[in-house]
Structure formats: structure tokens, C-alpha cells
Amino acid sequence: MQMQTPSGDLCSIPALLARNARVHGGKPAYREKEFGIWQTWTWAQTAEEIRNIALGLMILGINRGDYVAIIGRNRPALYWSMVAAQMCGAIPVPLYQDAVAEEMAYVLDHCGARFVIAGDQEQVDKVLEIQDRLPNIEHILYHDKRGMRKYDHSHLNWLHDVAEEGKAGHYRVEAELDARTAELTWDHTCVMLYTSGTTGKPKGVVLSNRNVIETARNSAEFDRLGPGEDILAYLPMAWVGDFIFSVGQSFWTGFCVNCPESAATMMTDLREIGPTYFFAPPRVFEGQLTSVMIRMEDAGRFKKWLFDHYMDVARRVGPAILDGKPVSGMDRLRYALGNLFVYGPLKNTLGFSRVRVGYTAGEAIGPEIFDFYRSLGINLKQLYGQTEATVFITQQPDGEVRSDTVGVPSPGVEVKIAENGEVLYRSPGTFVEYYKNPDSTASTKDAEGWVATGDAGFFEEGSGHLRIIDRAKDVGKMSDGSLFAPKYVENKLKFYPNILEAVVFGNGRDRCTAFINIDLTAVGNWAERNNIAYSSYQELAGHPKVLDMIQKHVEEVNASVAQDRMLSGCQIHRFLVLHKELDADDGEMTRTRKVRRNIIAEKYADLIAGLYDGSKQVSTRTEVTYEDGRKGYINATLEMRDAKVVPVAQSRKEAA
Amino acid sequence: MTAAAQPLPAEGWTTADGRKIGPVLMEMKNITLRFGGVKAITDISFDIREGEIRAIIGPNGAGKSSMLNVISGFYVPQEGEVWFRGAKRPPTKPYEVARQGIARTFQNIALFEGMSVLNNIMTGRLTLMKSNMAQQALWWGAAQREEDEHREKVEKIIDFLEIQHIRKTPVGRLPYGLKKRVELARALAAEPKLLLLDEPMAGMNVEEKEDMCRFILDVNDEFGTTIALIEHDMGVVMDLSDRVVVMDYGKKIGDGPPDEIRSNQAVIDAYLGVSHD
Fold first, then answer.
1. Is A93:A121 a contact under the CB 8 Å cutoff?
2. What pTM did the predictor assign?
3. In sequence order, which ranges of A434-543 are alpha helices (DSSP H)?
4. By CB atoms within 10 Å of each CB, which of A352, A411, A444, B163 scores lowest?
């Protein structure tokens, strides 16, 4: 069967497109909600649209091996542009659309992009702002025409015009385009993706057609994905996951990619589409659960009782039913009633009625959150991956899903644990190289093709599932020699809905301390219910009652950390609640919302000093960057609290 | 004051940022409006040109809103003439004025609170609907086709003003800044030649004001709509408008481009007060 053996003629995305147009021609390939209606393009129409863009690019003079930067939110035209660039023998480079101009300048300069395809005026403005430093940029194309009328169009083109021109002038360039498309092989670069990088400058990860297509095939077979799936494309196009789900797997299996109307309507669109295959980072699931819980708090007594009662049933038997384990007839009946009254409508509201396979990855997910979705009958699973592996390293097979592991090695992937506990892998998806950076390539990938993930972990005995503890470089030692794994503790803290982010310090010190960010939605709602008035985030974050609540959470986490013999030294002795949210615009987090520990430690050195010298409070002044790039300052006086810790000796006894 | 002395070219001109200002669209000639013995407007003349953003400013009680109501046909002045598109306008009902292509927003929002954003904006198309009430009630044939066309136009406006996420939300549940935007959307739905905005930024925070400014400029730029607005925020007025009329105690005390108004002594006195020593 064609699906089983990728033969010579299916070794590039354009080749898959041609097959889909032939085999699935009348099936929907893309949908986008525009003007309040879902607009649909079939595979045949998509192939034509992509071909026109490619012809237009040829007329503009695109060369083999050119880099084409794509910047914008998920829209069909931008996905098509990526494939059109591939047809011309060029390499698409999707960029994070919320990056500020400075961050973009580095990437555009590093890849030497000749073409930039931007979603709208906002993105064009950013490119124009830095263009004088980027002599390589020759053409800027844009998709959304709005506000663009008055710009100097000598090097600026509306994508639609480019496609129309391509269509009109196809005789001139058609032969050359077809020749270039035909010469694409397994080893040609499929896409280049810049890693957000928790440290240092972003690196361009080069992925070949082989990486993308083999990975797409393996992962699609693992979850039995077929041409009937619907996905919602809403995660950044620059992120490897979106490329694999919305391009790799979609082109391999022929399923439909749905693009939301705008970021603000994502939840409504999710509900309207009801995807069958869904991917989200834990924060999306957390956000949804928080909003459900907040709404239930405000519900009438009967509804609340109904919800609580059936959620208890679900928590007890739901996961077992999902995993196909034996469950008594009575419980099955109760669950079926619950499905009728609570789970069904709730899943519908959340947009998960049709989800057959759901994944979460990127960060650890709280067990309560994970179990909540699974108990509703949503097949939510975890996977572990990274850009360099073309996403998949390990994933959880159906029926073997747990919140504290990341599953077994994906098909075709070999995983081993190094001496120092670091996880290594080798797979068909292993990246080719870091672009123009042989040193980093050599230090990440060894001669035999093993790639170091930078994460420390171990295989659990018995189940053979991988467990990740922390970033290998973040795992350190306390001054008494015991293990310091900040992420492990931070994740436990973040599982509380009131805590949005936490940063734990203590490497090389005698005890651990923590910065906490409150979650404004959850804490704000709590404040409202408890008649606590506040006028700003800062005021709420510094409220004594909020501090009391956070202290309780920290102490609970300490008790739980103390249970783990290896990590009991990581209990938090002192903490503070930060006066501002950690933000990617201030460089405190990556664009994928991972905390940048070192930058935070540097920026808030005075606060850390305060935590260790025993001060009751510390005044500080923090620089903040607004969305438009302007800078300002916040002054604050923060209270530092002591948290109760469980003596280690006692915990050992308890554990024994 | 030499620039003001010279008459403006009748066929219009091009602004510094490349927008075309056309010939006179509406002209107010010696308007006087009285409520009993109170003179709200005294002998005011000015014109509004095609494609321009024209601001009317002045301290509280200067007669700005009355002026806007004269333009929109709600008040009929006792003296003076209103010329629209080259013809003298007889005293008309406001709905006739709306049909002629003048739409407005209100200082204190006048939306249907219980209706969704979408339906509120749809009401803006009422003057453009051809099918009669019976057809619409039956919602059959022509009425149905017509509604689809109107809906499409409305959706374009929703997209333009970036309010897709509240399309189905009842207006009553929206925050103030968004209500203002919905009101603008409803006015735009009438596809006006002349758009009247009564204090579009009143009570907004800085961010909402910036958004609103951008939308007003975009509307002017994309649809070529002529805009006359009343506004208190001087910074906004000076940035937005091509020409400004300044009123004080019902009289016109200044008229010209923002730079000129800024240095006009009468205007400065009206706003800051004059010391009587």
C-alpha cells in the first residue's frame, strides 16, 4: 500500500500535495473562518492555489536554496506559501509572529532570507523597521491588504497579486517550476525552524524531507490518523509541532487543517470545528479547566451538586473506562448517566466532543488537570519531543497513559540514558544540522547520530516509560551535596490554579527559595468572592491574604517534596510573590513560555539576596517593556515569607 | 494668519500624508439656532470637504453637539442654510438625512442593549433594505437573499473593526470601549458619505483611545468616508483632523488646520481663560 512505503515519488511535501490532489481531490484540505463563515478549500483547490503562488514566486525571481521567511498567524495562505516555496526549491523559515523587530532581525539576518511573506500590516511594519540592516531582503509579500494601500510598493507585493501574476504568466516559468519540484529528494531541506532557545541566540534547525515525512508517517500510524481527521491550527507556525501536525501529518494523511478567525475567537472556533485530533500545551488545558471551575462556582446549587456528583463518578471510573479496563455494570450505568447530564454537554462546550486523540507536551501537566480531562472520556496523552527530533521522542500509547511519565519511545526512535542521567535519542527525525553553526551541531549530535536532549530523566522499571526530571543543566547540587531539581518543585507549585509561574533558586546554596507569579484569573476570582478589593495586579499580588494562600500552597508542596528521598532537599524555605508577571517581552521567558532562569536571577538579584539574608521586605525597581517596545519602570516593596519545611530525617522515616 | 486669508482651492488638495481632499461636501451658511430665548449657535458658517476629517471643538456648552444635531437634521436652525452635495437641504426628518448618506454615533451610547453585536450592526443597514416588512417577516425569497447580502457587508465591517470575538455577545455585557466600537460599526454599516462622531473617545483609557484613533483613520482611508467629529481630547483632535472648527458660547472663534488653531490666541483664551487684571 502506498501509505506503507514512501517510494521515490513521495519524498517531498509538494509530491504529497500532488498525490492528495489526485486521491483526495474533493475532500476539504483547509478551512478558515472569515466573515463569520467557514470557508473551505479542497485538496484540488489547494493544489491550484499553491501552484499559483509558486508560479508567482518564480516570476519574482526566486532561486533554488533561497530562504523564505513566513511571519504571521495561522492562515491557509501562509501554509500554502511554505509549500509554494518548497516547490520552487526554496526553503521556508516560519518565524514567531509575536517576536519584536529586534528578535526578528537576528533570524532574518542569520538565514539571509531574500523573500519575506508577512501576514498583515503589523508584520510588514516590523520588517520594514529593520530592513536597512538586512540587505538580503529583496521582496516583501503580504497576505492581508488592510492598511497597506499607502506603502511604497516597489518591493512590496500583495500575495494575491503575486498568485494572479503567476497564473497569468504560467507559460514562462512552468517548465522550470516543474523541473525544480521534480528534483526534490529525501535529503533536500524541507523547512528550517529556529529554536526559541532558553539560553543564547536562536539556532536554525534544518529538517530534511526525510525527517518530516518519515516522522509524520510513523506518528500518524501510531495514532491511526486518517484522512477524516480535523485539527485546529492555532499554535505558532514557527513551532515545530505546528509544522508537523498542520503540514507533515496533514499532507501525509490528507486530513483537514482548520484556521481560527482570530486569536480571540480561538475557543469559539474550537467548539465549532470540534477537532478529532488536538494538541495543546498544558496552559491551554489549565486555562479551560480554570474557566469551567470558575463558572461552576457561580452556578446554582442544583447544577453544582449535579456537577460535583458526576465528576466524582468520572474521577473514579472514567480513566478505567477509557483504558478499556474492567468496570462494574453499575458504574458503567452511572458513567453513562453522567455522560448524558454533565460530561457530554461539558465536552461540547469545551470543543472536545469529537476528540479521538489529544496531546499535551512542552511542560509538565498537573495530575488533577490531566485526570480531569481523561475522566471525561477525552483521550488526552503526553508526548515528549523537541525541534531537533522533529517533535517525537516518546509518546504514550492508548491505554498506558499516566500524568507523571511521557511514554515509550515513538516508532523508529531509539532512546538511551547517558551516564550523567541525560536522555539521548536517535531517530529518522533527527535533524540534519544547525544552520551555519557546526560547533553546536557537533556538541549536540555525535558521530553515531545520538542527540543529547539536555533533559535529565530515567526509564521507570516495570512499565518502561520515560520520566523526565528536569533540564540536565538546571539539575544541580545544594551546598550539602543533595540533588537540586528546580523544575520538579516548580511544576508541583504550578499545579495550583492560583500559581501561574514559579522560579526556584538554590543551586550551590544551603536551602531553596522561590519567586511566585499568581494567576490573575484564578486569584482575581477568588478575591471577588472574598470581597477583597484591589486596583492592580501589583496590589493583588502583595495582598496579605494572597500571601497567606500562597504560603499554604508552598507548605503543601514542601510536604509532598519531602516524600521523595532524592529531592527532599529542594523544599522551599522562603518565598515571595512577584509584583509583575514574567513576560517574554522582558526576556524573562521564551516565546514558548519557558522561564529563563539565569536572566531572572540576574534581573532580580536584589530580591534573591533579600530572600537569603532574611529581610522581611525589599524595595525594588523593575524595568518593563510594553508591547510596542517602549520601556517603563515599576516600583514595588515586596514582602518575603518563611514557609514551614518538613525535616528531612522525619520524611525519610515516613517514606520508609 | 496669511494662510487662512487665502481661499482654499475649490477642487481640493492632497494632504502631507498623501490623502486626497475633495470639493465641498457640506456647507453650513450663517447658521443660528435658538431654543426659546437661548441662542445655542450664533451665525456660524463653515464647510466640510469630501474625504477630510473635520473636528469641531470647544469648551463645555459651546454648542458643539447642537451643531452636530443641525448637520444630522435633528435640529432645524431658525436662520441659515445647510448645503449638502451642492444642493440646499430643506428642513427634513432625521431618517431622510440618514437616507441621504449621513450616519452618526452618540455621545452616550445608543445601542440596543439586549441585542447581539451582530444584530445591532445589522440595524445600521435598515435604510438600505429594499424588501418591505411583510417580506421580511416571512423571510422568504427576496428578503432572504437581501439579508445574506447585508450580512456579508456587516461581516466585512466586523472584520475591519476587529470585533469577531464578540459577534454574538449581547451589547449589554460589553465594556464601554467595545460598545463605542460597536456603535461605530453600526454607523459604518449604513455606508455613509458623511460620518458624524459625537465624542468618540469620551471616557476611554489611553489604549482604547489609540485603538479608536486608528480605526477612525482607517475608516477614512479605506472607505474614503468624510468624518466630522466632536472631541474634548485636544491631543487626539490635533493628531487626527485635517481642519478644526473652534466654538465658544455658540460662536465660531477659529477655523483652520490644527497647527494654526494651536497658535490662535482666541482659542487659547477660550480654553485656558483670560486673566482680567
1. no
2. 0.81
3. 438-444, 486-494, 520-529, 537-541
4. A411
Separation CA A267–CA A288 (nearest Å): 9
- Domain at A282-471, CATH homologous superfamily: ANL, N-terminal domain (3.40.50.12780)
At A16, is the secondary structure helix, strand, or coil?
helix
The pLDDT assigned to A411 comes to 92
Helix (H) or strand (E) holding B28: strand B24-35
What is the ipTM score, two decimals? 0.75
Return the closest-CA partner of residue A290 out of A103, A544, A496. Answer: A496
Distance of alpha carbon A629 from alpha carbon A100, whole angstroms: 8
**Per-residue DSSP letter, A343:** I
Nearest to A121 by CA among B221, B117, B139, B87: B221
Amino acid present at B202: A
Residue B199 cell numbers, joined: 465624542
Mutate to test the interface with B, among A32, A35, A75, A144 (most CBs of B within 10 A): A35
- Start-to-end C-alpha separation, chain B: 28
pLDDT at residue B16 above 90? no
Using DSSP's 3-state secondary structure scheme, residue A156 falls into: strand
CATH 3.40.640.10 given to domain A477-655: no
- A63-77, A354-368, B99-113 — most confident range: A63-77
What does the block give as the cell for A303? 447544577
Give the pLDDT confidence score for residue A8 in this predicted structure.
54
The domain locations on chain A are 8-279, 282-471, 477-655
> What are the CA-CA distances from residue B256 to residues A399, B54, B260 (Å)?
76, 10, 6
Which of A:115-154 have CB within 8 Å of B? 146-147, 149-150
Residues 11-50 of A with CB under 8 A from B: 34-37
Give contacts of A261 with chain B, Cβ < 8 Å: 164
What are the distances in angstroms from CA B100 to CA A18, A272, B97? 54, 40, 5
> A653 pLDDT exceeds 60?
no
CA A488 and chain centroid, separation: 19
HSE at residue A369, side-chain half, CA atoms within 13 A, is 27
Query: What distance in Å separates the CA atoms of residue A384 and residue B237, rounded to the nearest whole number?
Result: 55
Among A residues 263-292, those touching chain B with beta carbons less than 8 Å apart: 264-265, 268
Helix (H) or strand (E) holding B4: helix B2-5
- The shortest CB-CB distance from A265 to any of B151, B155, B164 is to B164
Contacts of A221 (CB under 8 A, 6+ apart): A411
Question: pLDDT tens, A462-501?
Answer: 788 998 888 787 788 788 877 788 888 888 898 888 899 9
3 state DSSP class of A234:
coil
Residue type, A449: G
Range of weakest confidence among A57-61, A306-310, B49-53, B221-225 = B221-225
pLDDT in tens, B66-101: 999 999 888 999 999 999 988 888 888 888 888 888
State the pLDDT at residue A496. Answer: 85
User: Domains of chain B by range and CATH?
Assistant: 1-101+193-200+224-277 (3.40.50.300), 109-191 (3.40.50.300)
- Scan for cell 517525537, then name that residue: A392
Distance (Å, rounded) from C-alpha A254 to C-alpha A107? 31
Torsion over CA: A99, A105, A110, A115 (sign): positive
Instruction: Supply the Cα-derived Rg of chain A in whole angstroms.
Output: 26
A1 touching B (Cβ < 8 Å): no
Which residues 6+ apart lie within 8 Å of B219 measured at CB?
Answer: B160, B184, B188, B195, B225, B227
Residue A313 forms beta bridges with which residues?
none
CA A526 to chain centroid: 28
Instruction: List b or e across A408-419, with b for residues whose CB sees 16 or more CB atoms inside 10 angstroms.
Output: bbbbbbebeeee
